[in-house]
Specification:
Blueprint lengths: L1 E10 H10 L3 H5 L9 H18 L10 E5 L5 E5 L1 H9 L4 E9 L2 E9 L35
Antiparallel strand pairs: 1-5, 2-3, 4-5
Amino acid sequence: MIIGTGIDLVDVPRFERTVTRTPRLLERLFAPSERGMRIPSLAARYAAKEALIKALGGSDGVHWTEIEIASEPSGRPHFVLSGSTAAVVRDRGIDRVHLTLSHDAGLATAFVIAESLPDARPAVTPGAAGAGASAPGAPALDAPTPEEVP
């Protein structure tokens, strides 16, 4: 069941001007592993964090640096959540968080779907692979569940 969705769009040149003018924003918005990325990738990650907050229905208990966007070897992005942010996601009954990112033509965008799976073990645990990871025995991120297969 879908718990929430979120989408965000970032103007990359405006984002670049903002972080150039206020360099400490990088420390406030991004995990250490994200800070050295190119501006378009940072803008897409900022959009992903905003989209996640929208999918959650608000930012209570959510901290920017506890939301990390990592990539699988294939390049597919996923969230790695920690601290109170992981607890907020778990407490809201969310088992999976799907993420897609894009940046082109001076814009960066992200789309998030927060999902609760019936009778699934939670895939979100503090310090684990994150909300985008699969729990043992749970279907892969985009694999249809038995209820979805005709």
